[in-house]
Amino acid sequence: MNDNEEFKATTHHQEKVESQGSRTSYDVEAYDAVEEKKLMRKVDWRLLPILGAMYSIALIDRTNISNARVAGMGADLALQVGDRYTIVLVLFFPTYALLELPSNMVLRKLGAARWLSFIGLSWGAVMIGQGFTKHWIALAICRVLLGAFEAGFFPGCVYLITCWYKRFEVQKRLGGFYLVSVGIGGIANILAYGLMQMEGVGNLRGWRWIFIIEGILTCLLAIASYFIILDFPDKAEKIGFLTHSEAACVLQRIEDDRGDSVSDPLTWAKFVHHLRDLKLWAFATLFMSTTMPAYAFSYFLPVILVGMGYSAGAANALSAPPNLVAMITALGFAWVGDKYRVRSPVIAVQCILAIIGLMLVAYSTNNGVRYFGSFLGVCGCQGNIPAILAYQSNNIVGQSKRSVGSALQIGFGAIGGMIASTVFRQRDAPRYVTGLWVTAGLQIYILTIVGVMTVLFMKKNKQVDAQVANGGPEEPIEGQVGFRYTL
């Protein structure tokens, strides 16, 4: 069933009904294409803006340390000594990676609004605390806590969004949610420049105001999110957001598309079982390989620009445009991916863009060309984040598996952050050629793994199609009859 197909009417206003094989059937009113589109727009406007706003704050709060560094924090806390800055960056990620799966398990039990708003308020408080640190070790401890509280937000958002939409609707939604966050995060570089001008206000340095003001904004938005964030589709009727027939329509769309509208509770036995699927590990390493350059540009682009001769304020301001352009190009790629129902070609093209950009930044002798290279690099890696999330989402079935997959995938994203924090070494500043080559190597890894998976997925789809064509019993893919891998 595609977006223009109509749902079939059966009886009126009943709860979930019979199970047909491995699928659940819902009795719903007839919704034509226009009504169905209107219903999903209603979901879009309630679900995506608040998640996008909250995640933009999360991105700002974990990466504004680079803005603070060039605004005077590096000198005040002596971060230039040894590998202190690298240590402070890396300490964000261990708790961030380890707490993602437990957070997704809590998310289902407590509800999306309660849990996501709570962790948002918590990391906002930590951000304010960073503004008052007097020693680099105190800053490092704050980064550990920041990673712990932010751990559950992104995987929770991805899990929640993928549970609401069909497979070939999801990349546009993930792209809209994530890339609007990136765009706002880019503007935050300009905000940081403005906050730097508060130097001396309240006898505080400008870099401290970056943390304090942005932390306060986080807390205010987290409080508002408690009243706005939408829960999972099976709870939408209970909270009064959807009528009975609207809720049934949403659930039937999911069931017809991939057969997992009904939540299967995540247990430790299921967790271990899902981890045996090598595809989840492949998707996770793909995500690691594209988040690594995203973190690298966030943490080090202002430093690279200062090395080109720009002032600290100009470097922060010039870090914004590449993210704004990436938001536009990646949404275009997401539209192509959903319209033509492909994932791997979109990922491959963006990888190539990233490689070209990285080589320009590494080897061009013209600063204008190097800055242009940062646009290509940021566009390629940022656009591939929703693309790779959608690639996994399209090729697995079951809500418990989605929960494990999203947590594992985004946990590996934290490993990408660790790599970015360590391979861009202080002694390689300001060109960071070693770090840029490691980043390019990971893009080549993405191209290789996506190529292998495409061949395997294509082979499996053809095998099952041949069984059906020959009149034999259809072998289920991912345990679901009728399911096909997305290439």
TrEMBL record:
<keyword id="KW-0472">Membrane</keyword>
<feature type="transmembrane region" description="Helical">
    <location>
        <begin position="436"/>
        <end position="457"/>
    </location>
</feature>
<feature type="transmembrane region" description="Helical">
    <location>
        <begin position="113"/>
        <end position="132"/>
    </location>
</feature>
<keyword id="KW-0812">Transmembrane</keyword>
<feature type="transmembrane region" description="Helical">
    <location>
        <begin position="403"/>
        <end position="424"/>
    </location>
</feature>
<keyword id="KW-1133">Transmembrane helix</keyword>
<feature type="transmembrane region" description="Helical">
    <location>
        <begin position="280"/>
        <end position="301"/>
    </location>
</feature>
<dbReference type="Pfam" id="PF07690">
    <property type="entry name" value="MFS_1"/>
</dbReference>
<feature type="transmembrane region" description="Helical">
    <location>
        <begin position="177"/>
        <end position="195"/>
    </location>
</feature>
<protein>
    <recommendedName>
        <fullName>Major facilitator superfamily (MFS) profile domain-containing protein</fullName>
    </recommendedName>
</protein>
<feature type="transmembrane region" description="Helical">
    <location>
        <begin position="47"/>
        <end position="65"/>
    </location>
</feature>
<feature type="domain" description="Major facilitator superfamily (MFS) profile">
    <location>
        <begin position="47"/>
        <end position="463"/>
    </location>
</feature>
<feature type="transmembrane region" description="Helical">
    <location>
        <begin position="371"/>
        <end position="391"/>
    </location>
</feature>
<feature type="transmembrane region" description="Helical">
    <location>
        <begin position="85"/>
        <end position="101"/>
    </location>
</feature>
<dbReference type="InterPro" id="IPR011701">
    <property type="entry name" value="MFS"/>
</dbReference>
<feature type="transmembrane region" description="Helical">
    <location>
        <begin position="207"/>
        <end position="229"/>
    </location>
</feature>
<feature type="transmembrane region" description="Helical">
    <location>
        <begin position="313"/>
        <end position="334"/>
    </location>
</feature>
<keyword id="KW-0813">Transport</keyword>
<feature type="region of interest" description="Disordered">
    <location>
        <begin position="1"/>
        <end position="21"/>
    </location>
</feature>
<feature type="transmembrane region" description="Helical">
    <location>
        <begin position="346"/>
        <end position="365"/>
    </location>
</feature>
<dbReference type="InterPro" id="IPR020846">
    <property type="entry name" value="MFS_dom"/>
</dbReference>
<dbReference type="InterPro" id="IPR036259">
    <property type="entry name" value="MFS_trans_sf"/>
</dbReference>
<feature type="transmembrane region" description="Helical">
    <location>
        <begin position="138"/>
        <end position="165"/>
    </location>
</feature>
<dbReference type="GO" id="GO:0022857">
    <property type="term" value="F:transmembrane transporter activity"/>
</dbReference>
<feature type="compositionally biased region" description="Basic and acidic residues">
    <location>
        <begin position="1"/>
        <end position="18"/>
    </location>
</feature>
<dbReference type="GO" id="GO:0016020">
    <property type="term" value="C:membrane"/>
</dbReference>
